[in-house]
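We treat protein structure as text, and this decision shapes the records that our systems exchange. This encoding replaces a full spatial description with a residue-level series of whole-number codes. Below, we set out a record of this kind in full and without editing:
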Amino acid sequence: MPARKSKILETVDLTYPIEDGMLRFPAPWHPDVSLKAMGRIRTVGRRTTCITMGSHTGTHMDAPLHFIEKGKSIDQIPLHSLIGPVTIVDFSSMKENDAVTPALLKKMKLSERVIFKFGWGKRWGDMGFYRNYPYFTADSARHLVERGVKLLCMDTPSPDDSRTKLGSKEDSMIHKLILSNDVIMVEYLANLDMVKDYKGWSIAALPMKFLGSDGSPARVCIYR
């Protein structure tokens, strides 16, 4: 009997590479990303690297603990919520500082896992990435929670309005609303410009299993 051929999956990698000196959030408590050699094959017979980075470096996942004092840490997130069918919403026609409102969402079919494509990946590479991106209103965030969304992914650096002052009362209100409802977030998705057909995809979003951590860089792909 001839061997049965295995199906080759179509995959798109939605992850930015981690590299020395890469772009990172402009806050003083975020370390610069560093990849430095520890060992070399010619000297110790193997190559090893010392990696220094924050838990929210590049394409990464936010656990509830990021903003919620007693929220789940990254190692406590159930894997079944991070793997499976995903809805891809194309909002790439939105302009700078446009808001996602419930009116834009209410007629859409949404699965438990949703990717929002804003076309923001074209800004990756300089600090403009962190300014003026589209954002979610509090009502739209509540709408997603009420619709049963468990994994919320986006190609922007945040669901919050970038014009909100860091440390103010309004700082990261959408983060807090989403994470307090045990909805997991993935930010900084890459390569969504490669996705033109939005039907039939599943997602795999896998963070490092750092015990007690508020977040982690993640390898994220969609496949079908």
Observations:
- The chain has one domain: 11-223.
